[in-house]
Amino acid sequence: MITPGQTVLVVGLGKSGVSSCEFLLRRGCRVRATEHAQSASIAATAQALAEKGVTVETGGHTEEFCPGARRVVVSPGVPESAVPIQWAKRFKIPVIGEL
Q1: Is residue 7 within 8 Å of residue 69, measured between CB atoms?
Q2: Distance (Å, whole) CA 21 – CA 52
Q3: pTM for this entry
Q4: CA-CA distance, 30 to 90, in Å (whole number)?
Q5: Angle between the 15-26 and 40-51 helix axes, to the nearest 10 degrees?
Q6: 14, 36 in Cβ contact below 8 A?
Q7: Three-state SS for 38?
Q8: Is there a contact between 88 and 95 (Cβ–Cβ < 8 Å)?
C-alpha cells in the first residue's frame, strides 16, 4: 500500500512513468524517478517533473539513487535485471507495475 509521505521510486519516464509520478505526487508521496535513457526530450521531462517536486536521475540507473524508497513502481519494458529492481529485491522492497 502506498501512503502519503512515503518515498516511492518510479523506474522509467515514458508516458506511463510520468503519469505515475504525477499520481503519486497527488497522493502526497515523495517521488523519485530514474530513467536509463538520456535525450533532449527526457531532459525536458525530467525538468518538468523536477519543477513539480520529483527528484530525477537520467542517463542510467544507479544504486545510490535507490535508498530511502519504500516502494518501487516499474514501467512496462524495464528489464528484471535493472539496478533499481535488483536493489529492491535485495532489500525486500515491494516492486509493483505501474499499470
Answers
A1: yes
A2: 10
A3: 0.95
A4: 22
A5: 10
A6: no
A7: coil
A8: yes
With cell 530514474, the residue in question is: 34
Contacts of 83 (CB under 8 A, 6+ apart): 61, 62, 63, 66
Cross-strand partners of 31:
8
Neighbours of 13 (CB within 10 A): 25
Provide the grid cell at 35.
530513467
Q: How many other C-beta atoms are found inside a 10 Å radius of the C-beta of residue 87?
A: 21
What digits encode the pLDDT tens for the residues 19-57? 999 999 999 999 999 999 999 999 999 999 999 999 999
